[in-house]
Each structure stands twice: as C-alpha cells, then as structure tokens.
Amino acid sequence: MTTNYAVEMPxxxxxLQAQQRRLRQAxxxxxxxxxxxVVLFIFLAPFAWMLLSSFKTQVDITNTRNIFNxxxxxxxxxxxxxxxxxxxxxxxxxxxAALSTLFSLILGLPAAYAIARFRxxxxxxxxxxxxxxxGITFLIPWFIIFSRLGLIGTLTPxxxxxxxxxxxxxxxxxxxxYEELPxxxxxxxxxxxxxxxxxxxxxxxxxxxxxxxTAGIVAFIFSWNNFMFSLVLAxxxxxxxxxxxxNFLTYASVDWGGLMAAxxxxxxxxxxxxxxxxxxIVRGLTAGATKG
Amino acid sequence: xxxxxxxxxxxxxxxSIIFVIAMMIVPLLYTxxxxxxxxSGSARRPPEFVGLSNYxxxxxxxxxxxxxxxxxxxxxxxxxxxxxALGLGIALLINGKFLGHNLVKTLILLPMVATPVAIGMAxxxxxxxxxxxxxxxxxxxxxxxxxxxxxxxxxxxxLAVVDIWQWTPLMALILLAGLSALPEEPYEAARVDGASAxxxxxxxxxxxxxxxxIAATLLRSIDALKTFDIIYxxxxxxPGFATETINTYGYIQAFEYFQLGQASSLxxxxxxxxxxxxxxxxxxxxxWGAAL
Lengths: 292, 292
Description:
The complex is a heterodimer of chains A (292) and B (292). Chain A is mainly α and 292 residues long. In chain A, 78% of the residues lie in helices and 0% in strands. The two termini of chain A are 45 Å apart. The radius of gyration of chain B is 24 Å and the shape is globular.
C-alpha cells in the first residue's frame, strides 16, 4: 500500500499532504499506545512489586538500589504457611465465600425473579437499601446476638453476614436480567403443564445462567475480600485470610517479605478468577450504573 | 408443593424477606435502641436508658466526631473527584478498537477485585519511607523523599491515592460502557459542521454522558464515604487522629472502647448521612438527568 501510493497520486503537493497526515496519524497512534502503557504500568506496578518482594529476603527488600539483583527465595511462603496456620485460614475463607454465595443465590434468585415478574418494586428498594447502608451499622447487634447464641467460633456468623452483601448484589443484577427475559417462554411452559416453580426452574433459570455466573462470581469475590465483618465475628479458629494477614502485620510489622507472600496468597486466586471470566466481572461490577 | 405453587410470590420472596428482617431490620432497630442507652456490653450490667444524650454529646461535645466527618468528606471528595477525571481520561483513551483492547480492559480490572487488605499491605511497603519504592523513585529523580503516611498533614491524601488507584478503573469501565452506547449521528453532524475535537467533547460527549457520570459518581461516593479496610489496615486512623473517618471512629468506639451506646448513636447518624447523600444524588439525577 505505502509504496504504491506515490504512483497513484502523482502530484507532489497532495502526496506531501497525505504523507503528513499519515505521519500525524501514526504519531497519534504511537502516543496513544504510550499513554495506554503508562496507565497499565501504574495499575500493575504495585502488584509486580508485591510479587517481587515476596521472593526476596529481608536484606534484599531493604536494598532499594538494586531492585532486580537478588536470588529468589521461597522462604517467605514457607514461613507463612508454617507459622501462622495459613492453610486453615485459607480453607475458612474458601468455605465462607462458597457457602455465603451459594445461599445468597438460593435466596436471591427466586426473589429477583418474583420482583421482576410480579413488579414488587418495594422489595427491590429494600434490597437496594441493604447495598447502601454502611455494614458497620449492623455489627454491634450481630456481635451481641451471635455471642448470646454461642455462634462466635463457628462459620455461621461469617456466612450470614457475608450474605447481607451477596444477596442484595445478586438480586440487584438478576432483577434487571429477568426483566429483559421474554415472558412468553415461561407461559408456553405453563400451557404445557409446568407449575410456576417448574417454569422458573426449567425455563427462566437455565436462560439466566450468564447472569447467575456473573452475580455468583462477584458475590464470591466480595466475600473473599471482606474484612470488617470477619474482623469482629471471627475468633482464632474461624479467622479468614484478610484477618490473618492483618494480624500478621500487627505482630510482625518488620517482616515485609512474609507480609507480601501472604498478600500474594490471598490476592492470587481472585486475580486468576478475574483473568478467566473478565467479561462477566465487568458486567457485574458496572451493573446498575449503566442503565438509565 | 401444590400449596407452594399456589402462593408463588410468597414462596419466592419470603425466604429473602425473613433474611433481611433478621439480619438487617432487627439489627438496625437494636442499634437505634442502644443509641438511647449507655452500655459496655456487659451481661451483668444491662443497658441504662439516657434518652438523646448520646446524640447531644456526639453532635455538640465530641470534636473527634466533627473532625472525622470533615475528613470523611475530604477523603471522598478528593478520591471520587480524581477518579472521575482520570476515569474519563482513561475511558476516552481506550474507547474504540485497538490491538489488545480486551487485554487492557482485563488488566485494569485487577486493582478493584484484589483484596483491599492485601492492597493496603502492598501500598504500606510502597510508602515505607526508608525502603519503599516511591521514595527510591523520588531519590532517583533527585526529589525530596516524603514521609507519606507518617505525616499528619498529608496522610489522608496518600490514603486517598490508594483509593484512587483501586477505583479509577471502575469509573473508567462504567464511563466506557456509557461512551460506547452514545449515538453516532450528532458526532457526524458536528464533524460536517467543522467542530473541533475539543468542541465535540465539551458540547456532545459530556452532556450525553452526564447521566452515566452522575450514576458512577453516586456509586463511588457511597462506597468512598464508607471506606474502612484501607484506612484501618494502613493507619488505624493515625498518626494521632489524622486519618480517622466516621467509619473507623465508630469501629474504634464500639470494638476497642466498648462504648456501645455512644457508638450506636454515631452509627445511626452515619446511616442517616449515607442515606441522605444517596437520596440527594438520586433526586439530582432525576431532575437533571431527565432534562439532558
């Protein structure tokens, strides 16, 4: 293309103008890529630094002159898992996130479906309020009630409290989803003899799977990342990873390598999930804001 | 099963309603009740009724609360303002097709899905005055090193920087979704009329995007007002009270001082504040969003 151009456009002036324009476009494109690279660097550098530091000894971390000149070590990871019962906290985090998401879906999907189909706006508003209210408002009563019931020290308070984040979020996404789902399919199923519950389970639910996956993944991440509820409602044995890492800081504030190793262990699962299902996550996190 | 099918609405929404009542409404009422009492949580000494004196003390004789309110709004204003400006810039930068478009969208997701506590730890290391990467960078550029979180005059702003780093991508992705939904005709007309790129931006893009901007700002403002994880893990409100916000003050009062009545009155005020801000935005959007 480029070489033929001069032949097709014999007049020098036009040729020069076109060349200038092309040069300007190429320059603009290059600048754009440069700007994008800068943006990516800013958002990714803290992760890179965290990862890099987790493989360094304390001495190497202290040396800021030669940041890439070090012998990688797994010592920090070994320490974290050996000294702090990290495996237990990892399992706690996973159990709480999985179960709270599962129960939120079981409660939230039928509710969202009913809100969309029977126009129960008032319930939608209540669930939206749960999304807006500061979670700390509930923490004192929860702590007192769960203590009285003898449930502190079990995963139950953690699962229930994380559900108050997951359930409204799931309902919020799924109401919009079911409102857009054509009702004709369910009506056809009912004519064929399906009960209302059957129509939901066999028609609406399978059709809404992309939405369910979106909502479920984001609810799982919210629970996995939750700090404040677990800080109050967990004890030594039911601690989740964010609390374990926080205590790690308080007791060993100088062990930066171990701290970064712990941070990598908790962040990595979320980042991997995100890389695989990014399409769903964008939709989940931006839902509600892009609709009029 | 027949009974459930005949009462399909109740079957679908009752479990969620019971959950919301038990986990949200009852705790909210209990917090309101406690806000009229003095109580340390002791089982032997029941709450003592004191009327509105907790509120009176909070609003007129507790300068720590007033300062926390001001800081909460400064933090939110700085963070959300910067996120909006930067997010809009990034959205415009990555709007439209280019090689690696999806990869860029995926990678900028990572800050907002990563666990806040882990992010706090990573930024603590970046901010570390002696061995931190940021001061190493400043020294390499022959600029004076900073105290970052150690200085009470700037610590709040450096915390806001972490929030900006984490949440600018969400702003960018919401605005990007808004941009890609804009109609093409006005732009073609403007190009025919010879409008410059800047004119197209200020006179077409901004007004057309306005409802999305308001929605995204609302979403971020509510969460920024409630920010807890980053602040509590990185500074615990310090140095002194220099980074204490409403949320961290409430937490400390409840779970470190065990002044449950006083903390409850603070949480009720906080709750009302958040609700007020949300309603303001929603009305503002209805009023102005519809006109544009």
